[in-house]
């Protein structure tokens, strides 16, 4: 049996290898009952880790669904993020900006708990690196929230290795949520995933399918990838989408990979990748299709 769960770090939370990303939840136009049914089907597939952010608009509709079956809280792990202050049409703000002050982190988390209908989250992430970030102040906010039992673990999202090291020098971090897909290879080569291995922490991967561009974009790069993925899918007897997830899960940093689809069959395609091991030649075939070159 493939290992469907993983500890993000030593003494860190245990998450499902495939996590459910809900940043599009509000656009899926599901009734509260259907949201609950979708969550239950995800859990039945072994997807128990649920990813939110304060700016996604997903926390309130998710909380409404969870309120219909509160006992599910003990069967899931909730991630949320804070630090982006979003300017919308109703806002008096001039620009979207970052705020990682102690007051903002605590206020954002308190609001997330209210919307989610829970008294704690399993993991709180700083959503983006803030040029005005004061590591000591963030650490103080984390310590206050942890002592209050409102957050169990902490991490970051989209941080460079240097930014990660700075905050980790003040407070234990359990993950870095980063972008990685066959169309976005930066973290393979910029030291981010090397750092994860060095620290024995599992990253969380977002935009696994490049926001759908892997299968929808009209570009030579995407077309090369589709040909390669389809051929590999035929060889392994799975969908091309499953090959993408297997390619990501195979990285030695042992990532958790987000799926952002509201369709159950797409969740099944992601879960089917757990335990599917590509040969090294096939793994590099995807890398070469993306870069358009042979390995050096």
From TrEMBL:
Segments forming domain NADP-dependent oxidoreductase: 17-283
Annotated Gene3D superfamilies: NADP-dependent oxidoreductase domain
Database matches in Pfam families: Aldo_ket_red
Source organism per UniProt: Solimicrobium silvestre
PANTHER family found in the cross-reference section: NADH-SPECIFIC METHYLGLYOXAL REDUCTASE-RELATED, OXIDOREDUCTASE YDHF
Family named by the database record: Belongs to the aldo/keto reductase family. Aldo/keto reductase 2 subfamily.
Protein name as it appears in the record: Putative oxidoreductase
A GO MF label: oxidoreductase activity
Keyword terms: NADP, Oxidoreductase
InterPro entries, sorted: AKR, AKR_Detox_Biosynth, NAD(P)_OxRdtase_dom_sf, NADP_OxRdtase_dom
Any one annotated GO CC term: cytosol
